[in-house]
Amino acid sequence: MRAVLAGAAVLCLVAAPAAHAAWQTSSPGAAKAKAGQLVALTPITCTGTNVQWTAVGGPATYSVYFANGNNYPATPDVVTGNTSATAPGKVNVLIKAAVGTWSTQGESAGKICN
Amino acid sequence: MISFKELVRRRYVRRGVIVFAVMTAALGSGVAYAAWTSSGTGTATTKAGTAQAPVVSGGAVTTGLLYPGGTGDAVVTVSNPNPYPVIVTSVAPNGAALCSVTFTQRSPGTALAANSAPVLITLTGAVAMGANAANTCQGASIDIPVLVTIASA
Asked: To 5 degrees, how large is the angle CA B43–CA B45–CA B47?
């Protein structure tokens, strides 16, 4: 008898409708995002033949040009995602950084490296 | 010793209890007992409150900066003007943004107290910048139209 009554009580709880329904409302507004900014990659320094420069920010690609004089080649000597490259000797160094359509560039202050 | 008549009576009583219990379960409700009853007609009046829309604004972005072709963070500030606690159930795109920035819907699930002050919600990786974003977009603070939905907790 007790089992029957207990079962009935359980069925009551199961059959009972949900008593709560969430109230919902919406509103338009503006979220904020911020664009990064490419920083200067200078100064460009060299230790031995290892040229180094400052990261400009973001997933940048660096095109590195070496020249004995002032005339840099039309195509880069090195293309890298790192902030260092190996120079072929004492040279002028030009580096162009690009992140998508954004770009910046820097040049060494005269010939560097050995 | 119990007579045959008594046995039959007890069986009917048992069946009656079982039937009563099952009917109670089927109705899904409890049964109240009152010795004296009376009834009357009339009108009871009550009024439900109205759900107030959340107050939405932007916030300072300190992480997840955007670069062309990459993703970043968006920040939205939401306050709850209602006298009951709510949950921020959705932040959805609600129009175009500058600098080729797009927004992907998020369900932050942030809890706001009743009549809360503005709460800053950071939506990690919710925005993306197109690879063709103009150079003039560098360092820009970008407003992104969104629709914020709250629901009672």
From this structure: 155
**CB contact, 8 Å: A103 with chain B?**
yes
Distance in Å, alpha carbon of B135 to nearest chain A alpha carbon: 5
In this complex, which of A7, A17, A29 lies closest to B56 when CB atoms are compared?
A29
What residues of chain A lie within 8 A of the CB of B72, using their CB? 33-34, 36
* CA atoms lying within 13 Å on the CB side of residue B80: 24
The Cα A80–Cα A60 span in angstroms is 9
Condensed to tens digits (0 to 9), the pLDDT of residues B104-134 reads 999 999 999 999 999 999 999 999 999 999 9
pLDDT at B13: 64
Q: A99 at the B interface (CB within 8 A)?
A: yes
pLDDT at B25 over 80: no
Residue B136 pLDDT exceeds 70: yes
Q: Are strands B86-93 and B141-152 parallel, antiparallel or unpaired?
A: antiparallel
Q: Which residue has the tokens 């150079």?
A: B135
What is the structure's pLDDT at B28?
44
Which residue on chain A is closest to B62 by alpha carbon? Answer: A34
Helices (H) and strands (E) in chain B, counts: 1, 7
Higher pLDDT, A67 or B48: A67
Distance from CA of B19 to the nearest CA of A (A): 10
